[in-house]
Amino acid sequence: MKKIGVLLAGCGKNDGSEIHESVLTLLSIDRANAKAVCMAPDMDQLHVINHLTGMETEEKRNVLVESARIARGEITDIKNITAEDIDALVIPGGAGSIKNLSNYAIKGTGASVNHEVLRLINEMSDKAKPIGAICIAPATLTKALSSKNPEVTVGNDISSAEKIEAMGGRHKICTVDNIHIDKNNRLVSTPAYMLGPGIKDISIGIEKLINQIIDMI
Amino acid sequence: MKKIGVLLAGCGKNDGSEIHESVLTLLSIDRANAKAVCMAPDMDQLHVINHLTGMETEEKRNVLVESARIARGEITDIKNITAEDIDALVIPGGAGSIKNLSNYAIKGTGASVNHEVLRLINEMSDKAKPIGAICIAPATLTKALSSKNPEVTVGNDISSAEKIEAMGGRHKICTVDNIHIDKNNRLVSTPAYMLGPGIKDISIGIEKLINQIIDMI
Question: What is the ipTM of this complex?
Answer without folding.
Answer: 0.98
